[in-house]
């Protein structure tokens, strides 16, 4: 996959993309990440990329020219991307389903906004998707771009060692993941659940599924309404609710 990131601050990406899983994916040639400085496409001597908004108002707005010319350069050198993504508060909330959708693309472009926003003509004529990572305000689109690229790249075949790793993670089936334990068996008096030491694969599977459902019910109950629950899941949840009722009564 090719990932082009249009940004005013390419230096911000040095750490996250030069370490751990993303670094190894780049070294293997599975992911190519290019940081493109929007200022390089400014046509004035001061390399400015913003201007005052028509109609008045506070702050500055990113001008359309540098972004349109940056996209022209991408088209000329790498062809047309599959998706052009603007990170902005008005976008669709990012989730695991969207990450899997984007991971199927061959070429993605991310536009990192700043100031009071970007000239609307960019969104209307260049952008295919607008994405937000949450209902809060950040100084720019760089941090959201890092989050989305990380979530997408780890789903590309070959990036993670075991395919099961991505299948069993939180949100992969709409639920939170079950708890994990490793050695030592006992630490400071805290013990690993006995079922995980039993070697009984079916009991372990059921325990993990129950824990996943319990965690989701306790922390993110709204996810249950959207999750693809099996008949077994519904039985587990029914038994949990019965236990809760008996405790209350």
UniProtKB/TrEMBL annotation:
<dbReference type="GO" id="GO:0052906">
    <property type="term" value="F:tRNA (guanine(37)-N1)-methyltransferase activity"/>
</dbReference>
<feature type="binding site">
    <location>
        <begin position="133"/>
        <end position="138"/>
    </location>
    <ligand>
        <name>S-adenosyl-L-methionine</name>
    </ligand>
</feature>
<keyword id="KW-0808">Transferase</keyword>
<keyword id="KW-0819">tRNA processing</keyword>
<protein>
    <recommendedName>
        <fullName>tRNA (guanine-N(1)-)-methyltransferase</fullName>
        <ecNumber>2.1.1.228</ecNumber>
    </recommendedName>
</protein>
<keyword id="KW-0963">Cytoplasm</keyword>
<dbReference type="InterPro" id="IPR029028">
    <property type="entry name" value="Alpha/beta_knot_MTases"/>
</dbReference>
<keyword id="KW-0949">S-adenosyl-L-methionine</keyword>
<dbReference type="InterPro" id="IPR023148">
    <property type="entry name" value="tRNA_m1G_MeTrfase_C_sf"/>
</dbReference>
<comment type="similarity">
    <text>Belongs to the RNA methyltransferase TrmD family.</text>
</comment>
<keyword id="KW-0489">Methyltransferase</keyword>
<dbReference type="GO" id="GO:0002939">
    <property type="term" value="P:tRNA N1-guanine methylation"/>
</dbReference>
<dbReference type="InterPro" id="IPR016009">
    <property type="entry name" value="tRNA_MeTrfase_TRMD/TRM10"/>
</dbReference>
<dbReference type="InterPro" id="IPR029026">
    <property type="entry name" value="tRNA_m1G_MTases_N"/>
</dbReference>
<comment type="subunit">
    <text>Homodimer.</text>
</comment>
<dbReference type="GO" id="GO:0005829">
    <property type="term" value="C:cytosol"/>
</dbReference>
<feature type="domain" description="tRNA methyltransferase TRMD/TRM10-type">
    <location>
        <begin position="1"/>
        <end position="225"/>
    </location>
</feature>
<comment type="function">
    <text>Specifically methylates guanosine-37 in various tRNAs.</text>
</comment>
<feature type="binding site">
    <location>
        <position position="113"/>
    </location>
    <ligand>
        <name>S-adenosyl-L-methionine</name>
    </ligand>
</feature>
<dbReference type="InterPro" id="IPR002649">
    <property type="entry name" value="tRNA_m1G_MeTrfase_TrmD"/>
</dbReference>
<dbReference type="Pfam" id="PF01746">
    <property type="entry name" value="tRNA_m1G_MT"/>
</dbReference>
């Amino acid at each position: 996959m090719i990932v082009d990131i249009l940004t005013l601050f390419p230096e911000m990406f040095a750490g996250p993309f030069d370490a751990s899983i993303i670094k190894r994916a780049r070294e293997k040639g599975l992911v190519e990440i290019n940081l493109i400085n929007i200022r390089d496409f400014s046509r004035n001597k001061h390399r400015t990329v913003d201007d005052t908004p028509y109609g008045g108002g506070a702050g500055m707005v990113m001008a359309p020219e540098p972004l349109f010319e940056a996209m022209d350069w991408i088209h000329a050198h790498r062809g047309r991307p599959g998706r052009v993504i603007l990170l902005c508060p008005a976008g669709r909330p990012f989730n695991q389903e969207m990450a899997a959708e984007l991971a199927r693309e061959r070429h993605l472009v991310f536009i990192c906004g700043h100031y009071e926003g970007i000239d609307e003509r960019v969104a209307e004529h260049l952008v295919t998707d607008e994405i937000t990572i949450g209902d809060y305000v950040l100084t720019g689109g760089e941090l959201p771009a890092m989050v989305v690229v990380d979530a997408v790249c780890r789903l590309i075949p070959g990036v993670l060692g075991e395919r099961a790793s991505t299948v069993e993670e939180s949100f992969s089936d709409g639920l939170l993941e079950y708890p994990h334990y490793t050695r030592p068996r006992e630490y400071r008096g805290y013990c690993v659940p006995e079922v995980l030491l039993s070697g009984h694969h079916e009991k372990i599977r059921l325990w993990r599924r129950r824990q996943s459902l319990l965690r989701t019910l306790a922390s993110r109950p709204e996810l249950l309404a959207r999750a693809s629950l099996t008949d077994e899941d519904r039985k587990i949840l029914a038994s949990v609710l019965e236990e809760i009722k008996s405790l209350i009564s």
